[in-house]
Amino acid sequence: MKAFMGDDFLLDSKTAVKLYREYAENMPIIDYHCHLSPKEIYENKTFATITEAWLYGDHYKWRIMRANGIEERCITGNASDEEKFFAWAKTVPMAIGNPLYSWTHLELQRWFGIYDVLNEKTAAAIWKKTNELLQGNGFGARDLILKSNVKVICTTDDPADALTYHELLKESDFPVQVLPGFRPDKGLDISSPGFADWVRSLESASGIAVTTYQSYLDALESRVRFFHNAGGRVSDHALDQMVYAETTEEEAARIFAAGLSGEHVSFEDEKKFKTRTLQYLCGLYAELDWAMQFHINALRNTNTNKFSSLGPDTGYDSINDERIAKPLARLLDSAEKKRQLPKTILYSLNPNDNYIIASMINSFQDGKTPGKIQFGTAWWFNDTKDGMLQQMKALSNMGLFSRFIGMLTDSRSFLSYPRHEYFRRLVCTLIGGWAEQGEAPYDMELLGKIVEGICYRNAEEYFRF
After folding, report:
1. pLDDT at position 1, please?
2. How far is residue 192's CA from residue 190's CA, in Å, rounded to a whole number?
3. Strand stretches in 322-455, DSSP E
4. Does the structure show a pLDDT above 90 at 2?
5. Can you tell me whether residue 348 is helix, strand or coil?
6. pTM value?
7. For the segment 291-342, what is each residue's pLDDT rounded down to a tens digit?
8. d(C-alpha 317, C-alpha 380), whole Å
9. What are the distances in angstroms from CA 280 to CA 244, 249, 287, 445?
10. For a tag site, which of 192, 224, 276, 344 has the least CB within 10 Å?
11. Long-range pairs, 140-145, Cβ under 8 A, ≥24
12. Apex CA 142: angle with CA 138 and CA 146, to 5°?
């Protein structure tokens, strides 16, 4: 029997252990999509308690605490940090089988040197030790990033953001690149009640008076180029429902005018507006050699009462089951026909879409850029042992796993970098298993090169930050 969370955690063969120790373990990290705050990085934010570092804003943990019968007061309410931590410690033993169980203990081990299992009996000692360490040197946001061997971080930023802290970080002595990620979701959600207000913020940021659809596109282009000058090389789109509907420039202008004036915009018109605007952005991204990310098939804010009281991103989202194949293919094809399809990374929250995406990406490779169209790493609810392996197997069955650009944190927590370790151990187990079973040669030079590529080098080559 293996030791709990021991040195060979998730590594199920001698070959997997060798691959991890010699090729994966010490590779740097490119975190090309996350929700870390550039302000907190610049200010080297420190944490008063482990609760602040672990539980503030972490809706992953909030969901399972509710499932364990923890009252909201000890989750997002006015309970003390100590009470909230003890509520989490009560929940952890019930989370066996959930990746949060493994991540919690990996973080305790890697950051705090604590190898005890977290539960109600050990909670007091762990609360005391972690908080003592957090008050010492080496536990600020920058310190945690540097200790994790991170080379590049791409944050998630609104097009109207001034990117003040990105500029300050660029001028600082912090050696890690912290680059903006262009996230224009509010500019595509034309049926949202806040659309007109957002357009005014875009107008202010760009300095372009937005009165027509063309001036709107001009303002978006201005912000794309502003992000580019600040080092941005990635965009990100939350396309909860993948849509495609062709339209003319004149019709798009009519729809935009209706949305700007606060008129009702039908779903059919919304699809047309989104399609036309995405096509325009594709051309910009391709021109600037950006990577475009599509996060598809999330069903957000499903609990109306909780959304009303707690707001978005509080743990009340789930997997959507909209069909994606035809609209996704048509959108990619419309950009490709104009030779304006940028590097693209596709994620779906629904694992039923794995083989759709894994097969589709090879319909749009260009024969020049290795892995130009990527099947993005297992995301959100799929960010599990099974989910990661299923995504990797679908990719390897349909295309080139060896060209995969690997893991990202998609996290708001500075303690979450051990998730890369978790992922890398699974990569080595999968590849090591193929060698052990005679499905791949026992050629450590070849296998090690593939492992290093997936862990770091492929992303380094792909993004060219």
Report:
1. 84
2. 5
3. 343-348, 373-375
4. no
5. strand
6. 0.97
7. 999 999 999 999 999 999 999 999 999 999 999 999 999 999 999 999 999 9
8. 10
9. 14, 11, 11, 43
10. 192
11. 140/44, 140/45, 140/46, 141/36, 141/40, 141/41, 141/43, 141/44, 141/45, 141/46, 141/414, 142/41, 142/44, 142/174, 142/176, 143/44, 144/111, 144/414, 144/415, 144/417, 145/41, 145/176, 145/414, 145/417
12. 80
pLDDT digits (tens, 9 = 90+) for 193-216: 999 999 999 999 999 999 999 999
Q: Which residues contact 197 (CB under 8 A, 6 or more apart)?
A: none
Q: How far apart are CA 266 and CA 170, in angstroms?
A: 43
Determine the Cα–Cα distance for residues 270 and 1; give it in Å rounded to an integer.
56
Q: How far apart are CA 404 and CA 70, in angstroms?
A: 39
Instruction: Find, among 372, 167, 192, the residue nearest to 285 by Cα.
Output: 372
Model pLDDT for residues 211-255, shown as the tens digit of each residue: 999 999 999 999 999 999 999 999 999 999 999 999 999 999 999
pLDDT number for residue 394: 98
Tell the burial category of 256 from Cβ atoms under 10 Å away from its Cβ (0-12, 13-18, 19+): buried
Residue type, 402: S
Strands of 360-436 (E only): list them.
Answer: 373-375
